[in-house]
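Exercise: predict the fold of this chain.
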Amino acid sequence: MAQLIDAAGRSRPLSRRGFLAGTGGVLAAMTLMACGNGGASSSSSFGLLLPGDVPPQWDRVRAAVNTKLKTDLGFELQPSFINWTNYAAQSLLKFTAGEDFQTALSARWLNIAQLIESNALEPLDDALASGKYPNLTGAVDQSAFDANRWPDGSIYGIPAVNSAARIHHVVARGDLVDKYAGGSIETFDQLEKFWYDVQQKEGIPGYINRNSPFDVLGAPTGALYPQGWETPDLLPIYFSSDSLMFVPSRDAATTGSTDAVPFWEYEPYVESLHRVRKYYEDGIINADRLNADPATLKSQFDGGGAATCWGITDGLDTAGHLDLLEKAVEGASLVTLLPFRDGLSAKPNQTFQADNLVVVNAAAADSESALQLLDWVSVQENHDLLQYGEEGTDWKAVGDDAYEQVSDYANFPGYALSWRIPLERKYSRMSESEETWFDWSKDYDNFTLDPFASFIPDLTEVEKEHAQITAAITEFGNPLFAGAVDVTEGLDKLKSALDTAGLPKVQEELNKQADAYLAAQK
């Protein structure tokens, strides 16, 4: 999943899910307020939509990027940075309004299904096969493109990943692990005990994150989902990740019958909801999960205000937190925790679909420039300039594949533009635990291909019902995932709303399409 990633970006992880709650006049006005460098586009300046906050020192780095880009290709970048909280809704509105920008981040957990259905994205197959963009096609393996084809056979996005699989996990303060867990956490039970010990003795929450169903239900892992660390072999299926999740039959691949049921009919998921409710009441998780701002949560963890936070196997656990944490807490350190029962021998199910896809706006005045840009950032020198800044000023090389940060330029969302597996450098101070798990995540042989790996259902027959179900999840499901309501009462309200919204029709359609998918695999 990811990354990216969830990964997600670092202000994502991501959880970067479930933001398509609604539109309206206020939100439409907000689309004009995205952070960035502003100004109107011209024939030599092209817009991008990037999630997150403007990186420190961005004006200087952007000037250096644009100087080289103007020399090489004859145009400049003019990105708009949009806060993660609003990114999904604002980017969708910008696409549907036909605004002139070149690229954006999208994915199944964002809004790519809606964008494809509305013909808002440029199909990329012909461009990729043209031979005009050799750096891009050389840096992204063909198997990655194939894994991210839409059901119509087309490629609508460039996979922006830096590992084979993105596994949701926990980033912990190593100094507190030493103090309260004997220096090691290897099981979920040990992790849970650690959370309670820290909360009771340090007075800080055990785990903080934005609200996400994947934290609680897992896909296959979730920070708050113990079953995923015992048997990471289940991925839910769904029309979109901000809607209702269904659990397919365990023997679907052999019988050909999906028999998918709503998540509450799978007992480990219900147990997880009750567990999260207890965490909420006990102060183990942050009480503001429903409305938490990613930047605020990051500042809280980096300032020593929580024992653990969300992570994803994208190599950014240490780089994203350590420097600021050390300034706030003397002697602080970081560890990456994936408490699999089977340790590094675990083989979690994965789809190998990219968490992050860079899509090209079909309404752009010059969409060819988007491909030129994506090819340009697939060259090591250009990639490094954009992602790490000016060499010598912002970073310096350590060996052949690592870097040391020497300025405060950081957090450029490379997952929305420039991540390429062969080009990524490791943070020179990456913790030993993170390096172990990050290297593990790069090997496809460490994972099990899920039976529904390339299944992407078509919304056409249930668009109305799906929209109503998504609204019901926002109103009644999200408080359940946050632990903010009684589980029994909350589930009763959710089930009632979903039945009214058309759950039986949606469930039938999903199973019909999933069964057809399984039949086609034989």
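Check your answer against the key: Residues 25-164+352-424 form a domain with the D-Maltodextrin-Binding Protein; domain 2 fold (CATH 3.40.190.10).
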